[in-house]
Amino acid sequence: MKLKYLLLILLFVNTLKHQAQINSHIIIPKAVRIDSDLTTNNSIYSIVNFNTPSYAIQNQTITNVSGMVGNNLGYDTAILKFNGNFVLQDYWHFGGSGSEGFTVIHEDNNKNVYALLEIQAAITIDNVLYQAPPQSEIHSLIIKFNSNGQIAWVKRINEFLIQPKIKTYNNEIFIAGQYKGMSLTIENTTVSGNQVHPQLSETFLAKFNATNGSLQWLRTSETTVGVNENNMGTHCVDLELDQNGNAVLIANLFSPAVKFGTTNVSFVTNNAVSNNAVTVIAKYSNAGNVSWAKAPTVMNNRLLFAEDLDIDGTGNIYVSANATGGVNYWGTSVNPSFTTTGMYGHLFKLNASGSFQWAKANTNIQGGLKIYGIKCVQNDVVATYHALNSQIIDNQTINISNTSAILGVFGSNGTLKSYKLHVPDNPDPNRFYITNILHYSSAGYILSGNQSADIILDNSYPMPLPNPTNFTNNFIIKSGEFASAKEIVVDKWKLYPNPAKDEFFVEGEELSLQYKIYDLSGRIVDENSLRNSKINISNLSNGIYVVELANDEFMQRVKIIKE
Fold it and tell me: Which positions ≥6 away from 302 have C-beta within 8 Å?
Protein backbone atom coordinates (compact mmCIF):
# COMPACT_ATOMS: atom_id res chain seq x y z
CA MET A 1 0.00 0.00 0.00
CA LYS A 2 2.82 2.43 0.82
CA LEU A 3 4.45 1.66 -2.54
CA LYS A 4 1.16 2.36 -4.31
CA TYR A 5 0.84 5.79 -2.74
CA LEU A 6 4.51 6.55 -3.38
CA LEU A 7 4.02 5.82 -7.07
CA LEU A 8 0.94 8.03 -7.16
CA ILE A 9 2.87 10.86 -5.53
CA LEU A 10 5.74 10.47 -7.99
CA LEU A 11 3.31 10.48 -10.91
CA PHE A 12 1.63 13.62 -9.56
CA VAL A 13 4.93 15.45 -9.12
CA ASN A 14 6.08 14.39 -12.57
CA THR A 15 2.94 15.77 -14.23
CA LEU A 16 2.59 18.82 -12.04
CA LYS A 17 5.29 20.97 -13.57
CA HIS A 18 7.23 20.51 -16.77
CA GLN A 19 7.89 22.09 -20.12
CA ALA A 20 5.47 20.65 -22.68
CA GLN A 21 6.96 19.63 -26.02
CA ILE A 22 5.64 21.38 -29.14
CA ASN A 23 5.39 19.23 -32.26
CA SER A 24 4.23 21.57 -35.02
CA HIS A 25 3.07 25.11 -35.65
CA ILE A 26 1.96 27.66 -38.22
CA ILE A 27 2.56 31.41 -38.31
CA ILE A 28 -0.15 33.48 -40.01
CA PRO A 29 1.21 36.92 -40.99
CA LYS A 30 -1.00 39.98 -40.51
CA ALA A 31 -3.64 37.95 -38.72
CA VAL A 32 -5.92 40.01 -36.49
CA ARG A 33 -7.85 37.11 -35.04
CA ILE A 34 -7.84 33.33 -34.78
CA ASP A 35 -11.15 31.70 -33.93
CA SER A 36 -10.86 30.72 -30.29
CA ASP A 37 -12.40 27.24 -30.63
CA LEU A 38 -11.40 24.25 -32.70
CA THR A 39 -14.63 23.43 -34.52
CA THR A 40 -16.42 20.10 -34.47
CA ASN A 41 -15.01 19.29 -37.92
CA ASN A 42 -11.46 20.25 -36.80
CA SER A 43 -11.34 23.44 -38.86
CA ILE A 44 -9.37 26.49 -37.73
CA TYR A 45 -10.31 29.97 -38.96
CA SER A 46 -8.19 33.09 -39.11
CA ILE A 47 -8.95 36.65 -40.21
CA VAL A 48 -6.28 38.65 -42.03
CA ASN A 49 -6.45 42.34 -42.97
CA PHE A 50 -3.79 43.63 -45.36
CA ASN A 51 -3.00 46.92 -47.13
CA THR A 52 -0.25 45.50 -49.34
CA PRO A 53 -0.79 44.79 -53.08
CA SER A 54 -1.22 41.10 -52.29
CA TYR A 55 -1.21 38.59 -49.45
CA ALA A 56 0.47 35.20 -49.77
CA ILE A 57 0.20 32.16 -47.53
CA GLN A 58 1.21 28.62 -48.37
CA ASN A 59 0.50 28.30 -52.12
CA GLN A 60 -2.24 30.91 -52.24
CA THR A 61 -1.92 34.58 -53.25
CA ILE A 62 -4.79 37.01 -52.60
CA THR A 63 -4.79 40.30 -54.54
CA ASN A 64 -5.79 43.60 -52.95
CA VAL A 65 -8.67 44.97 -55.04
CA SER A 66 -9.49 48.06 -52.99
CA GLY A 67 -8.93 50.32 -55.99
CA MET A 68 -6.70 52.59 -53.91
CA VAL A 69 -3.05 52.97 -54.86
CA GLY A 70 0.36 53.88 -53.47
CA ASN A 71 0.72 54.68 -49.81
CA ASN A 72 -3.07 55.03 -49.54
CA LEU A 73 -3.77 51.43 -50.50
CA GLY A 74 -6.92 50.37 -48.69
CA TYR A 75 -7.27 47.39 -46.40
CA ASP A 76 -8.62 44.22 -47.94
CA THR A 77 -9.77 41.38 -45.74
CA ALA A 78 -9.95 37.60 -45.96
CA ILE A 79 -11.05 34.61 -43.92
CA LEU A 80 -8.62 31.68 -44.05
CA LYS A 81 -9.78 28.14 -43.28
CA PHE A 82 -7.19 25.54 -42.20
CA ASN A 83 -7.57 21.90 -41.33
CA GLY A 84 -6.19 20.42 -38.12
CA ASN A 85 -2.80 19.93 -39.81
CA PHE A 86 -2.55 23.67 -40.62
CA VAL A 87 -3.11 23.14 -44.36
CA LEU A 88 -5.09 25.94 -46.04
CA GLN A 89 -8.40 24.45 -47.22
CA ASP A 90 -10.36 27.47 -48.38
CA TYR A 91 -10.61 31.24 -48.09
CA TRP A 92 -13.16 34.02 -48.55
CA HIS A 93 -11.93 37.39 -49.81
CA PHE A 94 -13.86 40.63 -50.17
CA GLY A 95 -12.50 43.91 -51.47
CA GLY A 96 -14.43 47.13 -51.88
CA SER A 97 -13.48 50.56 -53.18
CA GLY A 98 -12.02 51.48 -49.79
CA SER A 99 -11.04 49.75 -46.57
CA GLU A 100 -13.00 46.97 -44.91
CA GLY A 101 -12.27 44.30 -42.36
CA PHE A 102 -13.75 41.15 -40.88
CA THR A 103 -13.88 41.37 -37.10
CA VAL A 104 -15.26 38.00 -35.95
CA ILE A 105 -16.05 34.56 -37.34
CA HIS A 106 -17.91 31.54 -35.98
CA GLU A 107 -18.79 28.07 -37.29
CA ASP A 108 -21.87 26.20 -36.06
CA ASN A 109 -22.26 22.44 -35.62
CA ASN A 110 -23.63 22.09 -39.17
CA LYS A 111 -20.52 23.69 -40.72
CA ASN A 112 -22.29 26.97 -41.52
CA VAL A 113 -19.99 29.96 -41.02
CA TYR A 114 -21.03 33.40 -39.75
CA ALA A 115 -18.87 36.51 -40.00
CA LEU A 116 -19.19 40.23 -39.39
CA LEU A 117 -17.64 42.64 -41.90
CA GLU A 118 -17.08 46.35 -41.23
CA ILE A 119 -17.17 48.56 -44.35
CA GLN A 120 -16.19 52.18 -45.01
CA ALA A 121 -16.85 52.18 -48.76
CA ALA A 122 -19.02 50.47 -51.35
CA ILE A 123 -18.52 46.73 -51.73
CA THR A 124 -19.98 44.01 -53.96
CA ILE A 125 -20.74 40.63 -52.41
CA ASP A 126 -22.24 37.78 -54.42
CA ASN A 127 -23.11 40.23 -57.24
CA VAL A 128 -24.96 42.55 -54.86
CA LEU A 129 -23.65 46.11 -54.40
CA TYR A 130 -23.69 47.49 -50.86
CA GLN A 131 -23.42 51.26 -51.06
CA ALA A 132 -20.86 53.22 -49.08
CA PRO A 133 -21.87 54.54 -45.64
CA PRO A 134 -22.02 58.31 -45.17
CA GLN A 135 -18.61 59.92 -44.89
CA SER A 136 -16.72 59.12 -41.65
CA GLU A 137 -19.17 56.33 -40.77
CA ILE A 138 -18.61 52.58 -40.57
CA HIS A 139 -21.41 50.10 -41.19
CA SER A 140 -21.61 46.37 -40.44
CA LEU A 141 -22.54 43.38 -42.61
CA ILE A 142 -23.48 40.02 -41.08
CA ILE A 143 -22.71 37.24 -43.59
CA LYS A 144 -23.73 33.59 -43.49
CA PHE A 145 -21.82 31.02 -45.56
CA ASN A 146 -23.45 27.61 -45.89
CA SER A 147 -21.55 24.36 -45.42
CA ASN A 148 -20.26 24.33 -49.01
CA GLY A 149 -18.86 27.84 -48.70
CA GLN A 150 -21.59 29.66 -50.64
CA ILE A 151 -23.17 32.84 -49.29
CA ALA A 152 -26.61 32.13 -47.82
CA TRP A 153 -27.49 35.70 -46.88
CA VAL A 154 -26.05 39.12 -46.04
CA LYS A 155 -27.64 41.47 -43.52
CA ARG A 156 -26.68 45.14 -43.39
CA ILE A 157 -26.72 47.08 -40.11
CA ASN A 158 -26.22 50.83 -40.42
CA GLU A 159 -24.17 50.94 -37.24
CA PHE A 160 -20.55 50.34 -36.28
CA LEU A 161 -20.63 47.22 -34.09
CA ILE A 162 -17.38 47.22 -32.09
CA GLN A 163 -15.60 44.13 -30.73
CA PRO A 164 -18.44 41.79 -31.77
CA LYS A 165 -18.78 38.16 -30.68
CA ILE A 166 -20.91 35.51 -32.44
CA LYS A 167 -22.34 32.31 -30.96
CA THR A 168 -25.00 29.89 -32.24
CA TYR A 169 -27.59 27.65 -30.60
CA ASN A 170 -29.79 25.37 -32.71
CA ASN A 171 -31.15 27.71 -35.40
CA GLU A 172 -30.35 30.91 -33.49
CA ILE A 173 -27.50 33.40 -33.81
CA PHE A 174 -26.43 35.57 -30.87
CA ILE A 175 -24.24 38.62 -31.47
CA ALA A 176 -22.85 40.80 -28.68
CA GLY A 177 -20.61 43.83 -28.93
CA GLN A 178 -20.50 47.51 -28.20
CA TYR A 179 -21.58 50.70 -29.92
CA LYS A 180 -21.15 54.41 -29.29
CA GLY A 181 -24.12 56.67 -28.80
CA MET A 182 -27.43 56.99 -27.06
CA SER A 183 -29.33 54.40 -29.11
CA LEU A 184 -28.87 51.42 -31.42
CA THR A 185 -31.11 50.46 -34.35
CA ILE A 186 -31.20 47.07 -36.08
CA GLU A 187 -33.94 46.50 -38.67
CA ASN A 188 -36.92 48.39 -37.25
CA THR A 189 -35.96 47.92 -33.61
CA THR A 190 -34.34 50.76 -31.65
CA VAL A 191 -33.07 50.46 -28.09
CA SER A 192 -31.97 53.34 -25.87
CA GLY A 193 -28.59 53.25 -24.21
CA ASN A 194 -27.01 55.94 -22.06
CA GLN A 195 -28.46 59.42 -21.90
CA VAL A 196 -25.26 60.85 -20.41
CA HIS A 197 -23.03 61.58 -23.42
CA PRO A 198 -23.04 60.56 -27.12
CA GLN A 199 -19.46 59.30 -26.94
CA LEU A 200 -20.09 56.78 -24.17
CA SER A 201 -20.05 53.12 -25.24
CA GLU A 202 -22.75 50.56 -24.46
CA THR A 203 -22.89 46.76 -24.66
CA PHE A 204 -25.60 45.19 -26.83
CA LEU A 205 -26.91 41.65 -27.29
CA ALA A 206 -29.00 40.60 -30.29
CA LYS A 207 -30.62 37.33 -31.35
CA PHE A 208 -31.25 36.47 -35.00
CA ASN A 209 -32.89 33.64 -36.92
CA ALA A 210 -30.13 31.63 -38.59
CA THR A 211 -32.23 30.65 -41.62
CA ASN A 212 -32.87 34.16 -42.93
CA GLY A 213 -31.03 36.52 -40.56
CA SER A 214 -34.17 38.21 -39.22
CA LEU A 215 -33.84 39.94 -35.85
CA GLN A 216 -35.63 38.22 -32.95
CA TRP A 217 -34.80 40.67 -30.18
CA LEU A 218 -32.28 43.38 -29.24
CA ARG A 219 -31.04 44.43 -25.79
CA THR A 220 -28.59 47.05 -24.54
CA SER A 221 -26.91 48.17 -21.36
CA GLU A 222 -27.63 51.67 -20.11
CA THR A 223 -24.85 53.62 -18.42
CA THR A 224 -26.75 55.67 -15.86
CA VAL A 225 -23.98 57.69 -14.22
CA GLY A 226 -20.84 59.06 -15.84
CA VAL A 227 -18.90 62.09 -16.92
CA ASN A 228 -18.65 63.51 -20.41
CA GLU A 229 -15.48 61.65 -21.23
CA ASN A 230 -14.77 59.83 -24.49
CA ASN A 231 -14.49 56.01 -24.44
CA MET A 232 -16.11 55.49 -21.06
CA GLY A 233 -19.30 53.53 -20.55
CA THR A 234 -19.68 49.74 -20.80
CA HIS A 235 -17.37 47.83 -23.17
CA CYS A 236 -18.29 44.29 -24.26
CA VAL A 237 -15.53 41.66 -23.91
CA ASP A 238 -17.00 38.19 -24.52
CA LEU A 239 -20.17 36.15 -25.03
CA GLU A 240 -20.99 32.49 -24.33
CA LEU A 241 -24.16 30.37 -24.38
CA ASP A 242 -25.07 27.68 -21.88
CA GLN A 243 -26.56 24.27 -22.65
CA ASN A 244 -30.08 25.75 -22.81
CA GLY A 245 -29.28 28.66 -25.10
CA ASN A 246 -29.14 31.27 -22.34
CA ALA A 247 -26.57 34.00 -22.97
CA VAL A 248 -23.86 35.22 -20.60
CA LEU A 249 -21.70 38.21 -21.43
CA ILE A 250 -18.86 40.00 -19.70
CA ALA A 251 -17.97 43.64 -20.10
CA ASN A 252 -15.70 46.28 -18.60
CA LEU A 253 -17.55 49.10 -16.85
CA PHE A 254 -15.61 52.37 -17.01
CA SER A 255 -18.37 54.54 -15.51
CA PRO A 256 -19.81 54.59 -11.97
CA ALA A 257 -23.04 52.72 -12.77
CA VAL A 258 -24.82 50.76 -15.50
CA LYS A 259 -28.19 49.07 -15.87
CA PHE A 260 -29.00 45.75 -17.58
CA GLY A 261 -32.77 45.64 -17.95
CA THR A 262 -33.92 46.78 -14.52
CA THR A 263 -30.82 45.49 -12.71
CA ASN A 264 -28.40 48.19 -11.55
CA VAL A 265 -24.67 47.46 -11.29
CA SER A 266 -22.22 49.87 -9.67
CA PHE A 267 -18.49 50.38 -10.09
CA VAL A 268 -17.48 51.03 -6.50
CA THR A 269 -14.50 53.37 -6.81
CA ASN A 270 -13.73 57.06 -6.49
CA ASN A 271 -11.63 57.02 -9.65
CA ALA A 272 -13.93 56.10 -12.55
CA VAL A 273 -11.81 57.30 -15.45
CA SER A 274 -11.08 56.05 -18.93
CA ASN A 275 -8.25 53.74 -17.80
CA ASN A 276 -10.02 52.27 -14.76
CA ALA A 277 -12.75 49.62 -14.93
CA VAL A 278 -14.42 46.67 -13.25
CA THR A 279 -15.63 43.38 -14.75
CA VAL A 280 -19.41 43.09 -15.15
CA ILE A 281 -21.22 39.77 -15.75
CA ALA A 282 -24.78 39.64 -17.08
CA LYS A 283 -26.98 36.64 -17.91
CA TYR A 284 -29.95 36.71 -20.29
CA SER A 285 -32.56 34.03 -20.87
CA ASN A 286 -33.00 32.66 -24.38
CA ALA A 287 -36.00 34.97 -24.68
CA GLY A 288 -33.88 38.04 -23.91
CA ASN A 289 -34.84 38.68 -20.29
CA VAL A 290 -32.12 39.67 -17.82
CA SER A 291 -31.72 36.88 -15.26
CA TRP A 292 -29.10 38.71 -13.21
CA ALA A 293 -26.17 41.12 -13.52
CA LYS A 294 -23.38 41.86 -11.06
CA ALA A 295 -19.82 43.07 -10.54
CA PRO A 296 -17.26 42.49 -7.78
CA THR A 297 -15.80 45.41 -5.82
CA VAL A 298 -12.39 46.73 -6.77
CA MET A 299 -10.42 47.58 -3.64
CA ASN A 300 -7.86 50.32 -2.99
CA ASN A 301 -8.96 52.30 -6.04
CA ARG A 302 -7.64 49.71 -8.50
CA LEU A 303 -9.09 47.92 -11.56
CA LEU A 304 -10.29 44.51 -12.74
CA PHE A 305 -10.22 44.10 -16.55
CA ALA A 306 -12.23 41.21 -18.01
CA GLU A 307 -10.39 38.94 -20.47
CA ASP A 308 -12.34 35.77 -21.27
CA LEU A 309 -15.42 33.74 -20.40
CA ASP A 310 -16.50 30.10 -20.65
CA ILE A 311 -19.40 27.96 -19.40
CA ASP A 312 -19.22 24.28 -18.48
CA GLY A 313 -21.77 21.58 -19.29
CA THR A 314 -23.90 22.28 -16.21
CA GLY A 315 -24.05 26.06 -16.59
CA ASN A 316 -21.24 27.10 -14.23
CA ILE A 317 -19.56 30.31 -15.39
CA TYR A 318 -15.80 30.94 -15.39
CA VAL A 319 -14.26 34.37 -15.95
CA SER A 320 -10.65 35.45 -16.37
CA ALA A 321 -9.72 39.04 -15.50
CA ASN A 322 -6.60 41.04 -14.65
CA ALA A 323 -6.36 43.20 -11.53
CA THR A 324 -3.89 45.79 -10.26
CA GLY A 325 -4.83 45.33 -6.62
CA GLY A 326 -7.28 43.69 -4.28
CA VAL A 327 -10.76 42.53 -5.31
CA ASN A 328 -13.74 41.70 -3.11
CA TYR A 329 -15.88 38.98 -4.69
CA TRP A 330 -19.20 39.52 -2.93
CA GLY A 331 -17.73 38.98 0.53
CA THR A 332 -14.56 37.05 -0.37
CA SER A 333 -11.45 39.23 -0.59
CA VAL A 334 -8.49 38.33 -2.81
CA ASN A 335 -5.19 40.14 -2.22
CA PRO A 336 -6.98 42.83 -0.18
CA SER A 337 -3.82 44.68 0.88
CA PHE A 338 -2.18 44.86 -2.56
CA THR A 339 -1.77 48.46 -3.75
CA THR A 340 1.18 48.11 -6.14
CA THR A 341 0.98 48.63 -9.89
CA GLY A 342 1.78 44.96 -10.53
CA MET A 343 -0.60 42.75 -12.53
CA TYR A 344 -2.50 39.87 -10.98
CA GLY A 345 -4.30 37.24 -13.06
CA HIS A 346 -7.70 36.31 -11.58
CA LEU A 347 -9.87 33.30 -12.39
CA PHE A 348 -13.28 33.13 -10.71
CA LYS A 349 -16.37 30.93 -10.84
CA LEU A 350 -20.09 31.64 -10.52
CA ASN A 351 -22.83 29.03 -10.63
CA ALA A 352 -25.70 29.24 -13.12
CA SER A 353 -27.69 31.42 -10.71
CA GLY A 354 -24.83 33.89 -10.39
CA SER A 355 -23.73 32.85 -6.90
CA PHE A 356 -20.01 33.22 -6.29
CA GLN A 357 -18.10 29.93 -5.86
CA TRP A 358 -14.36 30.74 -5.72
CA ALA A 359 -11.57 32.93 -7.08
CA LYS A 360 -7.88 32.20 -7.63
CA ALA A 361 -5.09 34.71 -8.28
CA ASN A 362 -1.33 34.88 -7.96
CA THR A 363 -0.46 36.01 -4.45
CA ASN A 364 3.14 37.15 -4.85
CA ILE A 365 3.27 40.84 -4.00
CA GLN A 366 5.28 41.88 -7.09
CA GLY A 367 2.56 40.73 -9.52
CA GLY A 368 3.90 40.10 -13.00
CA LEU A 369 1.14 37.74 -14.17
CA LYS A 370 -1.57 38.30 -16.80
CA ILE A 371 -4.32 35.80 -17.54
CA TYR A 372 -5.79 35.43 -21.03
CA GLY A 373 -7.97 32.72 -22.59
CA ILE A 374 -9.76 30.01 -20.60
CA LYS A 375 -11.54 26.82 -21.66
CA CYS A 376 -13.80 24.38 -19.82
CA VAL A 377 -12.77 20.76 -20.39
CA GLN A 378 -15.05 18.19 -18.75
CA ASN A 379 -14.83 18.96 -15.01
CA ASP A 380 -11.78 21.24 -15.29
CA VAL A 381 -11.04 24.74 -16.53
CA VAL A 382 -7.77 25.48 -18.33
CA ALA A 383 -6.23 28.97 -18.28
CA THR A 384 -3.39 30.66 -20.19
CA TYR A 385 -1.06 33.09 -18.42
CA HIS A 386 1.84 35.38 -19.32
CA ALA A 387 4.35 35.41 -16.46
CA LEU A 388 7.26 37.83 -16.04
CA ASN A 389 8.66 36.19 -12.92
CA SER A 390 8.16 33.33 -10.48
CA GLN A 391 4.57 33.03 -9.27
CA ILE A 392 2.53 31.67 -6.38
CA ILE A 393 -0.87 30.31 -7.46
CA ASP A 394 -3.10 28.28 -5.15
CA ASN A 395 -0.19 28.10 -2.66
CA GLN A 396 2.02 26.44 -5.29
CA THR A 397 5.29 28.10 -6.29
CA ILE A 398 6.03 28.16 -10.02
CA ASN A 399 9.70 28.93 -10.60
CA ILE A 400 10.28 31.01 -13.71
CA SER A 401 13.71 32.25 -14.80
CA ASN A 402 12.57 33.85 -18.06
CA THR A 403 9.28 35.31 -19.30
CA SER A 404 7.03 32.30 -19.85
CA ALA A 405 3.57 31.19 -20.87
CA ILE A 406 1.80 29.09 -18.24
CA LEU A 407 -1.00 26.65 -19.04
CA GLY A 408 -2.81 25.96 -15.76
CA VAL A 409 -5.44 23.26 -15.17
CA PHE A 410 -7.89 23.93 -12.31
CA GLY A 411 -10.44 21.51 -10.91
CA SER A 412 -14.08 22.49 -10.51
CA ASN A 413 -13.31 23.38 -6.87
CA GLY A 414 -10.54 25.80 -7.86
CA THR A 415 -7.57 23.57 -7.03
CA LEU A 416 -4.57 24.00 -9.32
CA LYS A 417 -4.18 20.40 -10.50
CA SER A 418 -1.29 20.81 -12.94
CA TYR A 419 0.55 23.33 -15.05
CA LYS A 420 2.85 23.42 -18.06
CA LEU A 421 5.39 26.04 -19.14
CA HIS A 422 6.29 27.29 -22.60
CA VAL A 423 9.44 29.41 -22.51
CA PRO A 424 10.66 31.56 -25.44
CA ASP A 425 14.37 32.34 -25.68
CA ASN A 426 13.76 36.04 -26.42
CA PRO A 427 14.16 38.05 -23.18
CA ASP A 428 11.73 40.77 -24.32
CA PRO A 429 8.42 39.95 -22.56
CA ASN A 430 6.41 41.66 -25.31
CA ARG A 431 7.57 39.37 -28.11
CA PHE A 432 5.59 36.20 -27.40
CA TYR A 433 2.13 35.60 -25.91
CA ILE A 434 -0.10 32.52 -25.77
CA THR A 435 -3.63 33.87 -25.52
CA ASN A 436 -6.18 31.25 -26.63
CA ILE A 437 -6.92 27.56 -26.14
CA LEU A 438 -8.37 26.01 -29.30
CA HIS A 439 -8.37 22.44 -28.00
CA TYR A 440 -7.20 20.74 -24.81
CA SER A 441 -7.07 17.15 -23.60
CA SER A 442 -4.80 15.14 -21.33
CA ALA A 443 -2.99 13.86 -24.43
CA GLY A 444 -2.31 17.17 -26.15
CA TYR A 445 -3.54 20.62 -27.01
CA ILE A 446 -3.70 23.34 -29.64
CA LEU A 447 -2.97 26.93 -28.58
CA SER A 448 -2.79 30.27 -30.38
CA GLY A 449 -1.19 33.61 -29.66
CA ASN A 450 1.02 36.28 -31.18
CA GLN A 451 4.73 36.89 -31.62
CA SER A 452 6.85 39.70 -33.06
CA ALA A 453 10.36 38.19 -33.16
CA ASP A 454 12.12 34.99 -34.18
CA ILE A 455 12.13 32.69 -31.18
CA ILE A 456 13.15 29.24 -30.10
CA LEU A 457 10.46 27.84 -27.84
CA ASP A 458 11.34 25.64 -24.88
CA ASN A 459 15.01 25.65 -25.87
CA SER A 460 14.38 23.34 -28.82
CA TYR A 461 11.55 24.37 -31.14
CA PRO A 462 12.34 27.11 -33.72
CA MET A 463 9.55 29.55 -34.65
CA PRO A 464 11.05 31.97 -37.21
CA LEU A 465 8.93 34.82 -38.55
CA PRO A 466 8.32 35.38 -42.26
CA ASN A 467 9.97 38.37 -43.90
CA PRO A 468 9.34 41.19 -43.51
CA THR A 469 8.59 40.98 -39.80
CA ASN A 470 7.20 44.46 -39.14
CA PHE A 471 3.56 43.44 -38.78
CA THR A 472 1.32 41.43 -36.49
CA ASN A 473 1.81 37.66 -36.61
CA ASN A 474 -0.49 35.13 -35.01
CA PHE A 475 0.65 31.58 -34.43
CA ILE A 476 -0.93 28.22 -33.64
CA ILE A 477 1.06 25.48 -31.90
CA LYS A 478 0.31 21.81 -31.34
CA SER A 479 1.48 19.45 -28.65
CA GLY A 480 1.07 15.77 -27.91
CA GLU A 481 -1.38 13.51 -29.70
CA PHE A 482 -1.74 15.80 -32.69
CA ALA A 483 1.69 15.38 -34.27
CA SER A 484 4.10 12.62 -33.32
CA ALA A 485 3.82 8.96 -32.41
CA LYS A 486 7.21 9.08 -30.67
CA GLU A 487 7.40 9.93 -27.00
CA ILE A 488 8.79 13.43 -26.58
CA VAL A 489 11.59 13.71 -24.02
CA VAL A 490 13.60 16.66 -22.77
CA ASP A 491 16.71 15.26 -21.09
CA LYS A 492 17.41 11.76 -22.43
CA TRP A 493 20.48 12.95 -24.37
CA LYS A 494 22.96 15.73 -23.57
CA LEU A 495 25.01 17.78 -26.04
CA TYR A 496 28.44 19.11 -25.14
CA PRO A 497 30.21 21.45 -25.46
CA ASN A 498 27.50 24.02 -26.08
CA PRO A 499 28.40 26.50 -27.56
CA ALA A 500 30.56 24.40 -29.92
CA LYS A 501 33.07 25.27 -32.64
CA ASP A 502 33.69 22.40 -35.07
CA GLU A 503 32.05 19.45 -33.34
CA PHE A 504 29.99 18.39 -30.36
CA PHE A 505 29.28 15.12 -28.61
CA VAL A 506 26.07 13.33 -27.68
CA GLU A 507 26.04 11.86 -24.20
CA GLY A 508 23.88 8.76 -23.90
CA GLU A 509 24.13 7.98 -27.62
CA GLU A 510 23.10 4.64 -29.00
CA LEU A 511 23.51 2.76 -32.28
CA SER A 512 19.98 3.40 -33.56
CA LEU A 513 20.08 7.17 -33.01
CA GLN A 514 19.25 9.48 -35.93
CA TYR A 515 19.89 13.21 -35.96
CA LYS A 516 18.73 16.25 -37.92
CA ILE A 517 20.07 19.79 -37.61
CA TYR A 518 17.72 22.69 -38.42
CA ASP A 519 18.53 26.36 -38.95
CA LEU A 520 16.17 29.04 -37.62
CA SER A 521 14.15 29.07 -40.85
CA GLY A 522 13.22 25.44 -40.22
CA ARG A 523 15.46 24.15 -43.04
CA ILE A 524 17.37 20.90 -42.47
CA VAL A 525 21.10 21.63 -42.91
CA ASP A 526 22.41 18.19 -41.91
CA GLU A 527 20.96 14.76 -41.12
CA ASN A 528 22.42 11.31 -40.66
CA SER A 529 22.73 8.31 -38.40
CA LEU A 530 24.95 8.80 -35.38
CA ARG A 531 28.00 6.59 -36.10
CA ASN A 532 29.74 7.52 -32.88
CA SER A 533 29.09 10.11 -30.21
CA LYS A 534 30.52 12.95 -32.34
CA ILE A 535 28.70 15.26 -34.78
CA ASN A 536 30.79 17.51 -37.03
CA ILE A 537 29.46 21.03 -37.65
CA SER A 538 32.60 22.65 -39.07
CA ASN A 539 30.85 23.41 -42.36
CA LEU A 540 27.99 25.34 -40.71
CA SER A 541 27.95 29.11 -40.34
CA ASN A 542 28.08 30.60 -36.88
CA GLY A 543 24.67 30.92 -35.29
CA ILE A 544 21.88 29.07 -33.49
CA TYR A 545 20.64 25.66 -34.62
CA VAL A 546 18.24 23.03 -33.35
CA VAL A 547 19.41 19.42 -33.14
CA GLU A 548 16.71 16.75 -33.33
CA LEU A 549 17.67 13.34 -31.93
CA ALA A 550 15.41 10.31 -32.37
CA ASN A 551 15.29 6.55 -32.11
CA ASP A 552 12.36 4.18 -32.58
CA GLU A 553 10.68 5.33 -29.36
CA PHE A 554 11.87 8.79 -28.37
CA MET A 555 12.48 12.20 -29.90
CA GLN A 556 14.26 15.20 -28.37
CA ARG A 557 15.15 18.66 -29.69
CA VAL A 558 18.05 20.67 -28.26
CA LYS A 559 19.25 24.16 -29.12
CA ILE A 560 22.99 24.47 -29.89
CA ILE A 561 25.13 27.50 -30.66
CA LYS A 562 27.86 27.26 -33.35
CA GLU A 563 30.63 29.77 -32.82
Answer: 276, 323, 324, 325, 326, 327, 338, 339
